[in-house]
TrEMBL record:
Belongs to the type-I restriction system S methylase family. InterPro entries: DNA_methylase_A-5, DNA_methylase_N6_adenine_CS, HSDR_N, Restrct_endonuc_typeI_TRD, Restrct_endonuc_typeI_TRD_sf, SAM-dependent_MTases_sf, Type-I_RE_MTase_Subunit. Pfam families: HSDR_N_2, Methylase_S, N6_Mtase. This is Uncharacterized protein. The lineage of its organism: Bacteria, Bacillati, Bacillota, Negativicutes, Selenomonadales. Keywords: DNA-binding, Restriction system. Residues 289-585 form the DNA methylase adenine-specific domain. The keyword DNA-binding applies. Residues 706-838 form the Type I restriction modification DNA specificity domain. It comes from Centipeda periodontii DSM 2778. Residues 25-147 form the Type I restriction enzyme R protein N-terminal domain. GO terms for biological process: DNA restriction-modification system; methylation.
Length: 865
């Protein structure tokens, strides 16, 4: 049902009637379950009603406040009963609670025994319990699964359908979430088992049953079996047997004694949830129904993140990259940092769809091409556990698991798995034609970088480099010039390009800092010498949340053939993703309609970007430049070979055009800020750590020093003040103290996080506080120029110019040199800018007055604490 993490608008559309309803957590659960009743369990809309009053005799039941008691959902026996609200013809009732709420059983009992209902359902969107009425008044009997439309709720013998009668579920996420919650709830008594893999093992047992011989499923539990310990044990034994039948076909994946490790009751409950559904992938099924992908999101992602800090690539990003790389039948495809197989399974589904759409059912061409793609997808992953999950992913997606191998892709090639060496090896005729990957990042952690000299010596990027007079870079090849450590993502980038066949294509996720950090200029230069950069996409900041806040990008590259040089008029497709379908907590974000109601469609733009890139490949002029999707020529690259699309944004660059227009205006010219005044200083304070001298909640601040973070300095009143005890400071901290002081009249600009926010150093601010180094200081002697600059820095024009120079992976940054080199229009006579100067002086005057008022308030008789 998948209501666990959703962001809707203020209203939601009723699935039954289209009526606009107020969005509440309970309403979201109710609407999602109504959809599930109709789409998966086949109950017609005409027999379903929401919010139905319940009668006791001739009177409507009321709660203690006198309000009518209403069942959240009522399903009637027929359409006539639903139209009449016939309480004597109710089939079952549903109680919906908001997520994480677990009460409501007594309400169900009241509904059932005051109506003709034979059954009841309780759900909070993540869990579901199914009950049927017993002859004992006031007691409901829990059963394993909700009957499909026209299935009997009460029968002397449980009817087991034939395998071919099992139907495909629409709401797989709800199905698996329910199963997971049952397993997790019961499995807490045993911490040794791997819940994620047990879920996979149960799914594989289900697949084995569906695809094995026999008309009737063995993966089944009747209500009679579930009632007894012996019955549950017998069913669990059957499921263990089914898993072993499957596992024995793949001895390279599953150990000889491997089994489902949760208890019999867990297995029995899982069977009850899954048994009615057809889960086996079919080669002739061209839809992108990815069982293992859903399993990852429900179990593997959560458990591996909790246990080992691992996370998986956002599926929207995976799908975009696959579409942009557009593999063909016959391509050899490799993910050298394969993780759980997200890219491998996505590539398989993409190619399978292509085969199904272009060949006839049962044709030799279809069989041959499907076999080809199974043997053309390869993965290398260093973690054995993830290799196993990737193999299972491929099995559940349609096989192709033999290409999933264990190894270290940045080690020497000859240490790779023999399967890779014989079928997907570098510098051979069977080298991969497509590589797609999301390699591990080191972030800012030195211990996550590669320091093994045996690895570093195999990479240009493992050595130091020198810049030549023509601004090109040469990497040393001597072991004497090895780096002490290097970021793994840079080594993977070089390895991917080396591994590719000439003319091959690479899609890689990288930290955004690789695009614009000056320290990466040499690597960008090497990249441009060896590859045609086809596309650069910066991803939304929430793309990998809540797992990591690292800003990321996607590069699509084409490896040059030997001796080929890049052409300066080659065009590079650029895009800046603005919507990723989730917020920073991982909650889904949906498009809302004109009424503010959720449409159920994820609010994301990666599909649009992939489509624009496809048009771009067909005709470089086919895309219409927009604010966030555009292209540039290779020879347009500038400023240390900056590859960040934001640096070339048409919208932001219009600010440069507007500034340069002042060169054509009489009495005006354009210069850089650093050239405005000989004595001007543009600098930032020293980087330092105040944690050891910070005092929390001091009762007496007389001997303490007030300190403001960047946000604290931006406040119009001083609500956020930190207190430092310099009597405990180190020599280095004491030296930083004087350097963190500001002077009255300084213009302050944020340089980290949200860059470009501007404030002014009032007399009180300068005299009283130390101020964070996260603010760039601009110190100007001339008061008229100071007022003019304050107005300019506060403008949208200056803000756009600052954003053009923004860089970084974890946080966005700005350097003093960017301010120094920023263009600014300047009049020959200040009389031409009297309005701008007056605005700056008014702001200074207002801030001084507010600062003084705040100081008086802080020292008033009312501030006694």
């Amino acid at each position: 049902m998948a209501t666990e993490n959703m962001n809707y608008g203020d209203t939601i559309s009723d699935y039954l009637t289209g009526t606009i309803l107020k969005t509440t957590p309970e309403e979201i659960v109710r609407q999602t379950f109504i959809r599930t009743l109709h789409e998966d369990y086949l109950y017609p809309k005409e027999i379903i009603r929401r919010e139905v009053s319940i009668q006791s005799g001739s009177k409507i039941l009321q709660d203690e406040t006198g309000a009518d008691i209403r069942a959240d959902i009522v399903v009637y026996h027929n359409k006539r009963a639903a139209l009449d609200g016939d309480q004597g013809n109710i089939l079952f009732v549903v109680e919906c609670k908001k997520p994480n709420v677990t009460d409501g059983y007594n309400q169900l009992v009241s509904y059932v025994f005051n109506t003709s209902a034979v059954g009841a359902v309780w759900t909070n969107g993540n869990q579901i319990n199914i009950y049927r009425k017993t002859k004992e008044i006031g007691r409901l009997e829990e059963i394993q699964s909700l009957p499909l439309y026209r299935e009997l709720w009460q029968s002397e013998h449980d009817a087991i359908p034939q395998k071919e009668e099992l139907k495909r579920p629409h709401n797989i996420r709800f199905l698996l979430a329910t199963c997971h919650n049952k397993l997790y709830g019961r499995g807490m008594e045993n911490e040794d088992f791997d819940l994620a893999m047990d879920m996979v093992r149960i799914l594989l047992a289900k697949i084995q049953d569906e695809t094995g011989p026999g008309l009737y499923p063995r993966f089944w539990i009747t209500d009679e079996n579930f009632k007894t310990v012996e019955g549950r044990a017998a069913v669990a034994s059957t499921i263990q047997t089914l898993f072993r039948e499957y596992a024995d076909q793949y001895p390279d994946i599953f150990d000889a004694h491997e089994k489902i490790s949760v208890g019999n009751d867990c297995i029995a409950e899982a069977v009850g949830i899954l048994q009615k559904w057809n889960l086996a992938a079919c080669n002739d099924d061209a839809d992108d129904w990815d069982l293992m992908g859903e399993t990852y999101e429900q179990f593997t992602h959560i458990n591996l993140k909790r246990q080992q800090g691992q996370f998986f690539t956002n599926r929207l990003v995976v799908n975009m990259m696959v579409k942009m790389l557009a593999p063909e039948i016959g391509d050899r495809i490799l993910d050298p940092a394969g993780g759980g197989g997200g890219f491998a399974t996505a590539m398989f589904r993409y190619l399978r769809r292509k085969v199904i759409m272009s060949t006839k059912h049962g044709s030799a061409a279809r069989d041959r091409q499907l076999t080809t793609i199974k043997d053309s997808i390869y993965l290398v992953e260093i973690a054995a556990r993830l290799v196993k999950i990737a193999k299972c992913a491929m099995l559940l997606t349609g096989d192709g698991q033999t290409g999933m191998t264990r190894g270290n892709s940045i080690d020497q090639y000859d240490r790779l798995d023999p399967w890779i060496k014989s079928r997907c090896f570098a510098n051979t005729t069977n080298a991969p034609s497509i590589i797609v990957t999301n390699p591990p990042f080191s972030g800012q952690k030195a211990d996550s970088q590669i320091s093994d000299r045996n690895i570093l010596r195999n990479f240009k990027f493992g050595h130091t480099y020198t810049q030549q007079q023509d601004s090109s870079y040469i990497f040393s090849e001597s072991d004497n010039d090895l780096l002490s450590r290097q970021s793994p993502e840079l080594l993977f980038l070089e390895r991917c390009i080396d591994w590719l066949k000439p003319g091959g294509r690479l899609g890689i996720v990288l930290p955004k800092g690789v695009l614009d950090n000056i320290t990466c200029e040499a690597y960008r230069s090497w990249l441009l010498d060896n590859c045609n950069i086809k596309a650069i996409i910066t991803l939304h900041k929430d793309t990998f949340q809540p797992d990591t806040g690292v800003r990321t990008c996607v590069l699509i590259l084409e490896k040059y053939s030997k001796g080929h040089k890049g052409i300066n008029n080659d065009r590079i497709f650029m895009a800046q993703s603005q919507r990723i379908g989730q917020d920073s907590k991982g909650n889904a974000v949906y498009v809302v309609d004109n009424n503010g109601s959720s449409t159920g469609v994820l609010s994301q733009d990666l599909d649009e970007i992939a489509e624009a890139y496809s048009s771009f490949l067909q005709d470089n002029t086919a895309i219409h430049p927009s604010e966030y999707i555009f292209s540039i020529h290779r020879n347009d690259l500038k400023d240390h070979l900056n590859l960040n699309p934001q640096h070339y944004s048409p919208r932001l660059n219009r600010a440069i055009d507007h500034v340069l227009e002042y060169n054509e205006k009489p009495g005006w010219s354009v210069t850089t800020i650093g050239q405005l005044e000989a004595g001007m200083k543009i600098f930032m304070g020293p980087r330092w750590n105040s944690a050891t001298i910070k005092v929390d909640n001091p009762t007496n601040t007389a001997e303490l020093t007030p300190y403001l973070t960047a946000n604290g300095a931006l406040e119009l009143r001083r609500f956020t003040v930190k207190w430092l005890d310099f009597s405990k400071a180190t020599r280095q901290q004491r030296e930083c103290r004087s350097l963190l002081k500001i002077k009255e009249g300084d213009i302050l600009i944020t340089r980290s996080g949200t860059i470009g926010k501007v404030t002014y150093a009032t007399k009180n601010l300068a005299m009283t506080y130390l101020v964070s180094d996260d603010l760039i200081r601009i110190r100007v002697q001339d008061k008229t120029l100071r007022a003019y600059l304050l107005t300019y820095f506060s403008s949208s024009m200056a803000r756009s110019l600052m954003l053009l120079d923004e860089y970084g992976s974890v946080q966005q940054h700005l350097q003093p040199r960017h301010i120094q080199e920023m263009l600014i229009p300047i009049p020959e006579d200040w009389e031409s800018a009297t309005q701008e100067i007056a605005a700056g002086n008014r702001l200074i005057h207002a801030m001084e007055n507010l600062s003084l008022a705040d100081h008086l308030i802080q020292n008033s008789i009312f501030n006694i604490f």
